[in-house]
Each structure stands twice: as C-alpha cells, then as structure tokens.
Amino acid sequence: MARAVPRLFLVRHGETEWSRNGRHTGRTDICLTPRGEEQVKSQATVLVGDGRPIDPKNICTALVSPRIRAHKTFHLLFEHLPEFPDHLITEEVREWDYGEYEGLVRHEIVARDPGWDIWKSGCPGGESVEEMQARVDRVIAEVRDYHRKWFEEGKGSRDVLIVAHGHFNRAMIARWNNFELALGSHFNVEPGGVAVLSYSHRSLDEPVLDGLNLYAHDA
C-alpha cells in the first residue's frame, strides 16, 4: 500500500503581551497571555488527537523553540492526551534575532533607520538575512530527511511538527517553496496559527503550502 504523503505542521506560539503590541520579540522570554493560552487550548481540541490532523502516532519528531512562549504552546497542544510526542528543544527554530531592535515596534525602528525592511536589511547586532536563510534552510533539510526516510524507506512516521515564531515561520514557508526569503513578507502568520507544508503529486521534489492559519483566532 502506498505510504501517505509526509507533512510538516508549523505552529506559531499563542499571543504574548509583546506580540499583541507589535514589539519584536526574539531572545526575550515572555509568557503567553491568558488569551494566548486559550487560543492554543481551543485549537488543540480540534486539531490534535487520535484521528485528528495532528495525530501523535503520525509524528516522528517535534522541534520546539526554547523560548517559554513556544515551549508552553507545545505543552498546551498535547496536555489533554496521555503522553507527549518525542520532541527536541532546539535553538535552530528560535525566532529571528532582532539584535538592537529587540523589543521595539516598527515605527521606533524606522525612526532610527528609515526604509528598514527586515527581509532585506536584517537586524544590526542580530541576524542578517543571509544568516536567517542559512538557519531556515538547515531546518528544512532536516525535515526533508525525516520525510524521505518515511516516504521512500518506510522508516519513522509521516509528520514533523515545529513550534516556533512569526518571522521564523514566514521564512520557513517561503524557503520550503523554494522562494527567496523576502517573499516571507507575503505570508501572514497569526499567533496560535497552524500552517501545513507538504508535497504535490506525491513528489518530494514539489513542495507546497497546503494550509495557513488553521483555526487561528484573531481579535
């Protein structure tokens, strides 16, 4: 019997005080707001569980950012189940390092650097565009190795889960589809939103975006 086409579920953490206010939150460790926790819990009952889209028995691995907002989101997604899927806490899926612009809103950044565009300029004291792309590409290569082993060799299981952040997830969507990193600006990733990345025509050479912001709750 033909194996199911592998998927990557890409989850952004729920709302934080800084995400609600538009502050760039990279290294800073900020908890979810009560609303952010409810966002994730309500999605978990619909999306996560036996026979649901995110089915723990189909997850070969989960990659989770070390920031508490992402780690808490991961736990809230699975806390209603008997056990958590295998997961790795890794800096590889952390948010873009905003450097000197950490904690600032866009108009404060532009006041310092007119014409600033993170997708073209990167962040002084943080990650450049080239560094961000290289990191995202490494993660994609890792995910596709899991997918290849499942689809071609029957090793492991079908899906990979990543719980991460807004800019990171937008960059992942762009690069997954072999677009330049800057095209990530065209994908809106809501707090608590789930994206589904997979392949067309049962070919691992044809990556696609299957879904975006599943069950995201925008104010």
Distinctive features:
single chain, 219 residues
List the helices and strands and how they pair.
Elements: E1 7-12, H1 17-21, H2 34-47, E2 59-64, H3 68-78, E3 87-89, H4 106-112, H5 118-121, H6 129-153, E4 159-164, H7 166-176, E5 194-199, E6 207-211
Parallel strand pairs: 1-4, 2-3, 2-4
Antiparallel strand pairs: 1-5, 5-6
Helix pairs in contact: 2-3, 6-7
Could you characterize what this model shows?
The chain is α/β, with parallel strands linked by helices and 219 residues long. 35% of the residues lie in helices and 15% in strands. The protein contains seven helices and six strands; from the N terminus they run βααβαβαααβαββ. The chain has helices at 17-21, 34-47, 68-78, 106-112, 118-121, 129-153, 166-176, and strands at residues 7-12, 59-64, 87-89, 159-164, 194-199, 207-211. It has a six-stranded mixed beta sheet. α2 (34-47) runs parallel beside α3.
What is the structure about, briefly put?
The chain is α/β, with parallel strands linked by helices. It has helices at residues 17-21, 34-47, 68-78, 106-112, 118-121, 129-153, 166-176; strands at residues 7-12, 59-64, 87-89, 159-164, 194-199, 207-211.
Span between N and C termini?
A: 44 Å
DSSP helix fraction: 25-40%
Q: What is the H-and-E element order?
A: EHHEHEHHHEHEE
Report the structural category.
alpha/beta
Number of strands: 6
Bin the strand percentage.
Answer: 5-15%
**What's the alpha carbon Rg, rounded to whole Å?**
17 Å
Order of strands, main sheet, comes to 3-2-4-1-5-6
Low-confidence stretches: none
Largest sheet: 6 strands, mixed
What would the average pLDDT be, to the nearest integer? 95
Identify the overall geometry. globular
**Number of H/I helices:** 7
